[in-house]
Amino acid sequence: MGSLKVTFVQPDGTEKTIDNLDAGQSIMEVGRNAGIEGIAGDCGGGCACATCHVYIDPQWQERVGPANDIEAEMLDMVSDVQRDNSRLSCQIQLSDELNGLKVVVAPAY
Questions:
Q1: For residue 1, is pLDDT > 90?
Q2: What angle do CA 50, 85, 74 make, to 5 degrees?
Q3: Residues 93, 100, 63, CA angle at the centre, nearest 5°?
Q4: Residue 74's closest CA among 48, 55, 54, 40?
Q5: Superfamily per CATH, domain 4-105
Q6: How many other CB atoms are there within 10 angstroms of residue 32's CB atom?
Q7: Most buried among 34, 42, 47, 100, by the most CB within 10 A?
Q8: 49 vs 38: CA distance, rounded Å
Q9: Does residue 65 surpass a pLDDT of 90?
Q10: Count of CB atoms situated within 10 Å of the CB of 95
């Protein structure tokens, strides 16, 4: 078992922390495996939908970094709920640097 953790703020405001995680998993995989409301990952992590859209907690935004061009195009699909801190959780890989990451699950589009 790993030693990393991620906290999800679900659409109803409930926080759920998932721990004992290993580096290399995507945040989408973690959320989907833990049954996090709003993390569907319909495309399986291929950056071909926006069903794993999250908002990065401001204190983590710099460490997570910006979306690349392909991800930004997918986020355009949800422009009505897109924010400056929007990311697709399938494109964020868990690492030691992101241990303790907090994300807010975006509303379904």
A1: no
A2: 25
A3: 55
A4: 48
A5: Beta-grasp domain (3.10.20.30)
A6: 19
A7: 47
A8: 13
A9: yes
A10: 13
pLDDT in tens, 12-51: 999 999 999 999 999 999 999 999 999 999 999 999 999 9
- Strands 86-88 and 53-56, by their bridges, are antiparallel
The structure tokens 């990952």 sit at 41
Nearest-angstrom CA–CA distance, 27 and 79: 21
Look at phi and psi of residue 11 and say left if phi exceeds 0, alpha if psi is from -120 to 50, else beta: alpha
Report how far residue 25's alpha carbon sits from residue 12's, in angstroms, rounded to the nearest whole number.
25
The pLDDT, as a whole number, for residue 108 is 82
- pTM tops 0.90, yes or no: yes
Q: Any alpha helices (H) in 1-109, and if so which ranges? A: 27-33, 61-64, 69-75
